[in-house]
Amino acid sequence: MATKTKNSEPDILVEDDRTGLETATLKRAFLDNLFYIQGKRLDNATRNDLYLAVAYTVRDRIMHRWLHSQKALNDHDSRVVGYLSAEFLMGPHLGNNLINLGLYETMEESLNDLNLNLTDLLDQEEEPGLGNGGLGRLAACFLDSLATLNLPAIGYGIRYEFGIFEQKIENGWQSEVTDKWLKFGNPWEIARNEACVEVKFGGQTENWWDENDQYRVEWNPDHVVLAIPYDTPILGYLTDNAAILRLWKAEATNTFDFQTFNRGDYFGAVDEKVKSENITKVLYPNDEQVSGRELRLIQQYFFVSATLQDCLRYHLEIRNNPVSNFHEKMTLQLNDTHPSVAVAELMRLLVDEHQVEWDDAWHITKNTFAYTNHTLLPEALERWPMPMFGKILPRHLEIILEINDRFLEQVKEHFHSDNGRVRRMSIIDESDQKYIRMAHLAIVGSYAVNGVAELHTHLLTQNVLHDFYEMWPKKFSNKTNGVAPRRWVVLSNRALTKLITSHIGDGWTKDLTYLKLLEDHVDKKPFQNAWSKAKMEAKEKLAKWVFDTQGIKLNTKSIFDIQVKRIHEYKRQHLNVLHIITLYNRLRDNPKLNMVPRTFIFGGKAAPGYFMAKLIIKLINSVAQVINNDPVARKKIKVVFIPDYNVKNSQQVYPAADVSEQISTAGKEASGTGNMKFTMNGALTIGTLDGANIEIREEVGEENFFLFGLTADEVEERKRGGYNPWNIYNQNHELKRCLDMLEMGYFSPWDEAKLFQPLIDNLKNHDDYMVLADYQSYIDCQDRISKAFKDQENWTRMSILNTTRSSKFSSDRTIMEYCEDIWKIEPIEVNVPDYDPKSNWH
Ligand SMILES: *Cc1c(COP(=O)(O)O)cnc(C)c1O
Question: What architecture does CATH give domain 485-799?
């Protein structure tokens, strides 16, 4: 591998091709990978060949850091955190890895020398869309921070063959196309076939008393599936530590059923294989809503069982530890209830397969898990019908019933046989048919429970989980979410990054609190100008992309007012639309109106079965079509819907925003993380007092935040008082006009007139999300924004202060809090030796 210069000077080393970091070395390594891995020369390589050659060049440089991280972990027998999540929305790897290696510019140079363009090759990477939205992206940001902070961590999840669907917009409607993210290969993962495990399903249990008078159970499944781990290294930022993302793929145990095959039934023989591999075929595309489908439970159990077997094997066989201290060496975080069947599975593995007594097993189990709650929406709370659960996991049902019996005894003792409490707290919901409440199982089986923003945790402990909070107050805490500044600023916003670093150095990228230092410059004119210039650069980049992909020309001097997130009634994209129609009507009434031009940008996917969300997408596109084609209005207002919103294209959206729309009904958004990405990039928020908006406002200062709307308490109060949206509709002239236009088909001249009737009926008759109640407050606030934008100097000042005061929202801070309050894990030291070709330095 190591080479020396040909003649003379034997002591001059040529950098190693797989680890060297110089421009010339990278160039040579890239060409080498192109030739030997892709089998191409520069003159016949496709863009994908070139991308893969760069990816392998970068992967080589990660590999020895990763292997040393794993060695350090084994050598020190450190306590490890496993982050269990049904979703990891990683985004493209190449750009982030270049940033984390500190190689972005060098690689750019090396490629330029070959007349290649890095941006072009970054664009070639197909994003692994293994998540729906915020929850999956949080898991990805957490892995970045865990690695960066040198913490020993493994992310465990599912290697879906089809991730979140690709969204196409046809005639204004969303249509879904399958996402074949693996079609061009995935250079970032390594299959570890030797570490596969078996996962069982169905069948019956058998019990008996053994020779030692021990109660024993054997589970005889009727189906066994292989779980194959695929590992992806997640390198920390400017450190040698790398975390592991281990995703499980399902395969059949025996590819062929030979008996069936010999009978000549080829398709019957393949049936079993298909059935097994279906488990990890596709991600359920519902956000904040449970599907209740049997396959979803099978997916959850599949990855949880594989993960726990993997953790136990690591603990017992690789580290040679006794089973009794499993919870001391390992802690497992449950990202929502999706992996919560882990509580029953660890009990089963300990009691049935490792012969640990129930009480000891329970001690280990409830000191292993910690649970993060992500939602207050009742439709998002997972519960499984008991018959379905028992059919797939008969042994786990028995274990859960045993856990529940023992737990309810405790409840009776603690609350003096209060039957209401017993009914409310039971893991089994018996209100109609019997269901297993997964959140209750997670709480009972965990040593810590957390919410994801102050308000969310408050509402959890005061309402939804109040009984549990009264029983175990110390178990509960808040861990406000965060986002990785490397991906969301350093990689996404190169112009702003350079500007900040030129003023305060680059310490802020590792410790975001350094951003405070920038406040010395907030009143300096040249700095303000440079700041506006960086924002303008990001707006122009987005405008170019919108023009290239959709042919819509944007005015970059207009306010870029952006709402990107999953489409959901509680997020209230339709409230935003009502503001747009209101402005449009004002312009129609007075074409000479001196209004600040606005560009409204939307993006987001709707769950395929969520009718109202899909109708909202059609609404946005219909309003866009009318306004963008109106010769008067289009000079002041543009409306754009970005199709297929994902991590990759979001990276050019957040930096370009002047205004960040965070307008959910107060009490409904647990935290939000999009709000944080916007703030870091210097957008001003228009928001309700919901989720982390409250904390963003506290940090940036109320004078740098546009607040509107009812509070969570006021929402409840209005609902208790018999909220009647009809009255608001009848009394608010501008609002009534908007709704009447929609009802009369003004924005659907190409479609049937009654197109938006279901939406209007919903708003006028129920309005569960208080759109009409917040309408006027929202409009007034938007008017304040337009006025504020006219004073560009002050606007820029506010923008700077949003960024400089955003450090709380780094996921580094969040992860440090998890470590200190919950996990009790510590950094490990990873040392990659200096390159020395004479020794066995790897
Ligand atoms: C950050 C992010 C989200 C979460 O956005 P919210 O505004 O917090 O709902 C969803 N999708 C993608 C692709 C993201 O990057």
Answer: 3-Layer(aba) Sandwich (3.40)
